[in-house]
Amino acid sequence: MPDVEIDLLEIRCGSVTAPAGCGKTQLIADSLTRQTGRKPILILTHTNAGVAALRTRLTGASIPTSSYSLATLDGWALKALKAFPGRSGIDPAHLALSNPRADYPAIKRAAAALSGGRHIDDIVDASYSRIIVDEYQDCGPEQHQMVCHLAAVLPTVVLGDPMQEIFSWQGPHPDWQDDVCLTFLPAGELVKPWRWIRAGAEGLGEWLLEARRTLMAGDQVDLRDAPPEVEWIELDGTDDEAKQRRACLARSPRVGGEVLIMAAGVQTDLQRRIARQTPGAVTVENVDLTDVISFARSIELDQPGDLARALEFATEVTTNVDRSALVQRVAILGRSSERKDATGVEIAAMDYNRTGSADHLVALLLALEGNPGARTFRPDILRTCVSALRSCAPGNPAAFLDAALRIREQSRMMGRRIPSRAVGSPLLLKGLEADVAVILNAAEFDRHPIRNMKNTYVAITRGSRKLLVCSQSPLIG
Q1: 434 with 257: CB under 8 angstroms?
Q2: Is-contact 368 321, C-beta < 8 A?
Q3: How far is it, in rounded angstroms, from Cα 411 to Cα 178?
Q4: Is the pLDDT of residue 176 over 70?
Q5: Sign of CA dihedral 170, 172, 174, 175
Q6: Taking the CA atoms of the chain, what radius of gyration do you get in angstroms?
Q7: pLDDT tens digits for range 61-92
Q8: With the C-alpha atoms ordered 159, 164, 167, 169, is the resulting torsion angle positive or negative?
Q9: Please, which residues have CB within 8 angstroms of residue 395's CB and are 6 or more apart in sequence?
Q10: pLDDT exceeding 90 applies to what percent of the chain?
Q11: Bridge-partner residues for 42, per DSSP?
Q12: Angle at 330 between CA 328 and CA 334, to 5 degrees
């Protein structure tokens, strides 16, 4: 349960500081159970995964959908711009989202201008009773401007935690004290570690709240003072990689419990190597699904297949793929009409090499996955690729890329399912929780001290029952 003294429905224009695991989502749900107004509450957050998580919690609380309207900030902005394209002045090409890297910044700017021009005040007032914005620490300047303008129309409360602001690599965000709290006056702070209380590890939760205060004061957290649920694994230069591999094998104290393994966001090679080497581990991918899109751009269907490129992609997602041996074997088999000695994988490779068709490429990728001893450690990448290929219409050279882009956008709308043993960065795993959190090197999250400190805080709060930290020093953050 959240802190009952904070009532979101009584706040006219305010902010609630919400440390990790202290009941923020439940506070929102509890507020909606008391909603009696005729108009719904507009709830905004940053990611579609966040929308999915909120919707799941609200549905579980049996809150009628008529009580709220739930969207991402960008999704709501896009809807408003599509309703008033002329008034907003945005280039209509941006509304098609064909180039997200350019389109979303333009959408943010136009939405801030549209709301700031007071053009939609009456419509907003007629549509909603109040506004709640979650994960507010992740707002960029234009989103902050938009919400400030909307707050002049409706009662608005924002919830967030400046210690979890780890998206700032995209550009400077409004300062929580000097910008956010000047407009949205502080209305309270959540102080109970409900995530750890529910897990029977209240001592760990209280220690993490104290660690947060320590980090905010500019000091480092001393792992030697941690409760028994925290294990420090010293990296002293002796078999450090073996120590980290053993840490990644940590088991949950609970049967069926999940494990989250974290390395720096720039250490994608390390993340994939750990996922490849750790039984049962899979990577958590960025929402851009960059490797699928790159593969789709590089492959032309319905002509002799690019076997080397296909196998290169396969090695990036599945273990036990011997590229060079398979290419050589296909060449040998291709010079002979005798095929009885060919394996299923070799036949699939020959078929794709000959036709380059989407169906044969799918058959090859699945045959490689089904090889004895093989394991797919990047299932999101492989599944997206296979789904895109299966939806390709023959004779359309751009079909694969178009399908991959379409599926990527669809996947943004779904929340992430936590694998039993997931590997990623604090940024990718933010918002998720598991029984066990493993940090591979707590000093390397970011070269910038402030960003490293915030990534450290996000990382150490992912595990509800156990935390393993690999580092040279017991002082982290």
Answers
A1: yes
A2: yes
A3: 36
A4: yes
A5: positive
A6: 25
A7: 999 999 999 999 999 999 999 998 888 889 98
A8: positive
A9: 302
A10: 75
A11: 69, 131
A12: 120
Are 150 and 120 spatial neighbours (Cβ–Cβ below 8 Å)? Answer: no
Judge whether 17 and 160 are in contact, CB under 8 Å: yes
Q: Tokens for 320, please give them.
A: 């036990």
DSSP 130-171: EEEE-SGGG--HHHHHHHHHHHTTS-EEEEE-GGG---GGGS
54 CB burial (10 A radius; 0-12, 13-18, 19+): buried
Q: How confident is the model at residue 431 (pLDDT cuts 50, 70, 90)?
A: confident
E-strand stretches of 195-312 = 221-222, 230-234, 259-262, 282-283
When pLDDT is cut at 50, 70 and 90, the band that residue 179 belongs to is: very high
Model confidence at 2: pLDDT above 60: no
Question: Which residue intervals of 316-355 are DSSP H helices?
Answer: 323-334, 344-355
For strands 282-283 and 421-424, give the pairing: parallel
Beta strands at 221-222 and 475-476: parallel, antiparallel or unpaired: antiparallel
What 219-223 contacts at long range (C-beta under 8 Å, 24+ apart), as own/partner pairs, is 219/477, 220/475, 220/476, 220/477, 221/456, 221/460, 221/475, 221/476, 221/477, 222/474, 222/475, 223/469, 223/471, 223/474, 223/475, 223/476
If we measure between CA atoms, which residue out of 43, 17, 18, 46 comes closest to residue 32? 43
Task: For 319-433, list the strands marked E by DSSP.
Answer: 421-424
SS3 call for 408:
helix
Q: At what angle do helices 268-277 and 240-248 cross, to 10 degrees?
A: 60
Torsion of CA 310, 314, 316, 318, to 10 degrees: 180
Task: Collapse the DSSP code of 354 into the 3-class scheme (helix H, G, I; strand E, B; otherwise coil) and give the result.
Answer: helix
What DSSP string describes 18-47? --TTSSHHHHHHHHHHT---SSPEEEEES-
> Mean per-residue pLDDT for 210-221?
96
CA distance 248 to 184: 42
> What is the model's pLDDT at position 1?
46
Least Cα distance to 302 among 235, 253, 358 occurs for 358
Contact 425, 439 (CB under 8 A): no
Half-sphere exposure of 323 (CA within 13 A, CB side): 13
pTM: 0.90
Tokens matching residue 395: 């004779």
